[in-house]
Write a structure and sequence with these properties.
- The structure is a single chain.
- The protein is globular, with a radius of gyration of 20 Å.
- α1 runs antiparallel to α3 and α9 packs antiparallel against α10.
- The protein is α+β, with helices and mostly antiparallel strands.
- It has 12 helices and 10 strands.
Length: 362
């Protein structure tokens, strides 16, 4: 039995990878990261939308492609490999899944139709549900929201913010509404932006079904963790490839450093640890798509395990490069820092493993 990506999924993945190779060189990424080059960022976003990644999880009846999470996971790997400075996990994965499971018919049709036309883009702030802080106190009352949410994902081109309270109730706020204060959060990862958003009596549209169940937000977070793991896996593959390539070119004592046993062992260890991660990731996405009982456990394991392996790969790849690995000239740090931030997004490995244990009654 063969278990892997289909030809269509590989084709979709390769198209995204080719687009990034042609349009998002390390120099372009550097300009966006260091100089906030909005024009290049907008051009990349427009190009990726033309490829259809905003429509992957939107049903065909709403103008989307009607594909599944495994397609989104395949794309996530390419985005991580190319360190794309683009919204994806929140805007185009978590948001449509939350709407699918949490909205009533009227809400579902409106938001999904507008998303398919690229008229509505979401930033997603669910940290209150899985990692709330005492001072945030985000609450819904009488179709108003008060409080703040931290580390909101994918605000780059957002027109609306999707947020949740501690109970898993999901609300949607238009950024044109009054009573919104947006604060930039600085992280080591300059390829993406994160926001803190404060709400004061701001109008909110509550997704009706989320008032009765936390199914919508649980599914959205599981999917987000799987795609975040895919991003880290793609970034890790890029770092491994760069380490191997560098080891063939860099010479010491008139020999390529790749001929030294210590360097061979480092590259072999990275490759050996990364290879099983593909199966874990794809199985997690498959379990989600087929609503298997173990889908939450698989999502947690994929996120936590790949976070740990990616951290190891980022460290060893940098070591293979020696002092050059720390320079901005190679730009290796963009992948390194992205992996580090992905490790914490939507829950650290320790938090996610604890959640998996609790889901099994342990």
């Amino acid at each position: 039995m063969y278990f892997g990506l289909s030809e269509d999924q590989i084709f979709f993945q390769d198209n995204v990878k080719k687009f990034l190779e042609d349009n998002a060189s390390i120099d372009v990424i550097r300009k966006i990261a260091n100089e906030s080059d909005k024009t290049s960022k907008e051009d990349l976003h427009n190009g990726i939308v033309i490829l259809g990644i905003n429509n992957i999880l939107i049903p065909e009846e709403n103008g989307g492609l009607g594909l599944d999470l495994l397609f989104a996971t395949a794309v996530g790997q390419s985005l991580g490999e190319g360190i794309a400075t683009l919204p994806f996990t929140g805007s185009y994965v978590m948001a449509p899944i939350a709407i699918k499971y949490g909205a009533n018919d009227e809400q579902r049709n409106f938001y999904l139709n507008e998303m398919s036309k690229n008229n509505v883009n979401f930033g997603v702030g669910f940290s209150e549900f899985f990692g709330s802080r005492n001072e945030s106190e985000l609450s819904f009352s009488n179709n108003k929201v008060n409080g703040k949410t931290l580390f909101v994902l994918d605000c780059d081109f957002a027109t609306h913010i999707m947020l949740s309270d501690k109970k898993g109730q999901i609300g949607i706020v238009s950024l044109e509404s009054s009573g919104i204060e947006i604060i930039d959060l600085i992280t080591v990862d300059k390829t993406r932006i994160f926001k803190e958003i404060i709400f004061k009596n701001t109008e909110v549209d509550i997704l009706e079904n989320t008032s009765r169940s936390d199914e919508a937000i649980s599914n959205a977070i599981d999917a987000g963790r799987i795609v975040t793991a895919a991003d880290s896996l793609g970034a890790s593959k890029a770092m491994l490839d760069k380490a191997i390539e560098y080891s063939k070119e860099r010479k010491q004592f008139n020999r390529a450093i790749g001929s030294f046993q210590a360097v061979k062992h480092m590259c072999a260890e990275m490759a050996a640890e990364l290879e099983p991660c593909y199966s874990i990731l794809w199985h997690a996405a498959h379990s989600f798509d087929n609503k298997e009982k173990n889908k939450k456990i698989m999502a947690c394991h994929a996120k936590s395990h790949i976070s740990d392996i990616s951290k190891m790969v980022s460290k060893k790849s940098t070591e293979v490069h020696g002092g050059m690995g720390f320079t901005d000239l190679l730009g290796l740090h963009y992948w390194f820092k992205r992996i580090g931030v992905n490790r914490q997004i939507l829950g650290s490995p320790e938090m996610v493993r604890e959640e998996a244990a609790q889901s099994q009654g342990l």
